[in-house]
Amino acid sequence: MCARFSGFEFDEIMVNSGSKQQRKVTCADKSSSCSKSINETVNGSHHFTITGYSLAKGMGAGKYISSDIFTVGGYDWAIYFYPDGKNPEDSSTYVSVFIALASDGTDVRALFELTLLDQSGKGKHKVHSHFDRALESGPYSLKYRGSMWGYKRFFKRSSLESSDYLKDDCLAMHCTVGVVRTRVEGPKQYTISLPPSDMGQNIKYLLDSEVACDIVFQVGDETFKAHKLILAARSPVFRAQFFGLVGNPNMDKVVAEDVEPSIFKAMLLFIYSDKLPDVHELTGSMSICSSTIMVQHLLAAADRYGLDRLKLLCEAKLCEDVTVDTVATTLALAELHRCSQLKTICLRFAATPENLGAVMQSEGFKYLEESCPSLLSELLGTIASADENSHLGNKKRSYSSLFGLELIADGAAAESVNPSGRRVRRRL
Fold this sequence. Notes:
Blueprint: E1 2-5, E2 8-11, E3 13-15, E4 22-24, E5 36-51, H1 53-56, E6 63-66, E7 70-72, E8 75-82, E9 94-101, E10 108-116, E11 126-129, H2 134-137, E12 140-142, E13 148-156, H3 157-161, E14 170-185, H4 199-209, E15 215-219, E16 222-226, H5 228-234, H6 236-243, E17 253-255, H7 261-273, H8 279-283, H9 288-304, H10 308-320, H11 327-336, H12 340-351, H13 353-361, H14 363-371, H15 374-392, E18 402-405, E19 413-417, E20 423-427
Helix pairs in contact: 4-7, 5-6, 7-9, 9-10, 10-12, 11-12, 11-14, 12-15
Function: May act as a substrate-specific adapter of an E3 ubiquitin-protein ligase complex (CUL3-RBX1-BTB) which mediates the ubiquitination and subsequent proteasomal degradation of target proteins.
GO biological process, one term: cellular response to salt stress
Family: Belongs to the Tdpoz family.
């Protein structure tokens, strides 16, 4: 039998009964079986910056600044930085840094690495790595939500404040988490590699070549040829127009109004390829503002013709490119075309303190006031909700690092608290 563990493969020598000769059994023998146990880590990293370090001093021992929640290996994690140290007996002599399990989990086995970045450019980073000594002690097991790995005496504070790790009152650290996963592989059979589907390319060729087109669209001063069956298969609006109860399957020309030729062309490209067209290529501009305007119009067209996937792709693109200059018009568009996810994202973006002032000064905000005045009250509600959450001290939220109070514990160990409130401590 063959087995693989942590990168090492073992071949077992089998003795043939009734024979003096030993033989090595391989997975190729029809009478044998073969499997591999593979232990590996699913790795992920998080970069955490603390701006205004001096303002965090004096919080008190046991109080920490938390990074935003990040996910690795199916579990949520957070970095806790204690400017006055984790335990009162250190008298704020040291800063403490821990990586905490922020989601429910039992016996989550993981490796960790904490790096305090040298900001002088010399590359002399301070690295504490669990990966380097995995063979000595194995992965660390975190028992419950709140279990932590790290160092209560991570760095002497007086040395830190005179070092190149602190620059312009700012600290930067990098965290890597490797969640251990175990899987078993059976024997691999002979396979034939299959090429990816080219259906989309073949169908798009029909549009590009105009082969067997049976409908012409007049859009402004431009015309576009297409295939009624393909349009009907993709869009319920075209299906009703050509083959519905009041449709006309014999029509050969349609005048499309209230849509720009470039937008209609982009919509046709999606219908035939199932991909969001390259808006920069269609507009001939690399400007984010120009591409955003086109995607906004394309979303409206998608909603008009019942192309739900295209509408969602446009929402995702607008979400990626949201800025203080475009968020107001995008918010109005989301309200008009019932894009709930995009609307929520725009409200949250506009409501953040660092964006709100610039958003209100934008031309798009004036349009928002005139076209969708009801959204102003929703924006105020989002601002109030964000302000309330900041006072409640929620641990999991974006846009800022949060101050919190750590569970009372002691020792240079990884600690946790179980659901009943009992302290659990594991020595590193």
